[in-house]
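Dear H.,

Thanks for agreeing to be a second pair of eyes. The structure we're designing against is below in token form, covering all 290 positions.
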């Protein structure tokens, strides 16, 4: 029963995302990567639910983390956030991560929206897909982060994405839909970027239900053979400079928010949706000053 409860909460705070079945990478390849962890709690019967990795996130300043709003919507915003979540970074293996300063405050985007679509919505029967708008959140820490080779901030500003720019995903996640635990190894992979308009044309026959989501200006669509599993949501989608003619430094361009029902990598192409970070640059600056 304890394992079932943990898995249910994992699904609640971390819908499928992207990096399952990617290659194992070193944290120095993504030093902005963090683990947003739900803290354990005591059940009425006296048993303890242990702390666990729920979502990814990215360091964007000395006291600031950006992640997906759906990763934090379960929180009681009237209770101290440091009693509910913590942020850890600085290593490739989950158990080796260093806890960052305590969480001071959490900011969900004021227009965040989440809706589940079903064939029979009245009875919530035959699930189709999830829709997210403004799926972005900021975590403020109580003290400055100490930066080094394995802990660094990612840039937010850069030239607009161009067709076939290289995008890099990273995160910790379950590797198959029926896994009971998150893979402790940091994984990542890179794929070329395609505009949403091109994606709609590419998938209009295969995945027509995704087309509406791709028309949203805050959505960054990704076409990949990598399927999603719980754990990667909220993490970084980064444009790499070495494979993008118009990029000088790595830039955070997306935040994973949806995946597929089957997160195994079966070689089939599918579309996942991500929050387009550039659409929220003004809000991020208003909240953080960055």
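And this is the sequence the design step returned. I haven't edited it by hand at all.
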């Amino acid at each position: 029963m304890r394992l079932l409860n943990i898995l249910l909460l994992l699904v609640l705070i971390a819908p499928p995302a992207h990096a399952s079945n990617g290659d194992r990478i070193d944290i120095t390849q993504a030093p902005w990567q963090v683990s947003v962890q739900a803290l354990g709690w005591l059940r009425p019967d006296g048993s303890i639910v242990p702390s666990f990795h729920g979502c990814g996130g990215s360091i964007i300043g000395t006291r600031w983390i950006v992640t997906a709003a759906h990763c934090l919507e379960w929180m009681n915003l009237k209770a101290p956030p440091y009693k509910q979540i913590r942020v850890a970074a600085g290593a490739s293996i989950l158990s080796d991560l260093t806890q960052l300063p305590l969480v001071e405050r959490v900011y969900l985007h004021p227009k965040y929206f989440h809706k589940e679509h079903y064939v029979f919505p009245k009875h919530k029967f035959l699930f189709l897909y999830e829709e997210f708008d403004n799926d972005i959140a900021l975590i403020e820490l109580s003290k400055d982060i100490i930066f080094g080779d394995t802990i660094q901030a990612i840039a937010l500003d850069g030239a607009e994405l161009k067709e076939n720019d290289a995008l890099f995903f990273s995160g910790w996640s379950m590797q198959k839909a029926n896994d009971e635990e998150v893979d402790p190894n940091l994984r990542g992979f890179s794929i070329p970027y395609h505009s949403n308009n091109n994606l709609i044309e590419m998938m209009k026959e295969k995945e027509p239900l995704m087309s509406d989501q791709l028309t949203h200006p805050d959505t960054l669509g990704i076409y990949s053979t990598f399927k999603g599993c719980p754990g990667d949501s909220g993490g970084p989608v980064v444009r790499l400079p070495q494979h993008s003619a118009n990029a000088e430094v790595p830039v955070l361009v997306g935040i994973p928010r949806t995946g597929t029902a089957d997160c195994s990598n079966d070689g089939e192409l599918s579309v996942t949706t991500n929050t387009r970070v550039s659409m929220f640059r003004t809000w991020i600056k208003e909240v953080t000053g960055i």
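Two observations from my side: Residues 1-18 have pLDDT under 50 and may be disordered. The helical segments are 2-13, 196-203, 211-214, 281-288.

Warmly,
E.
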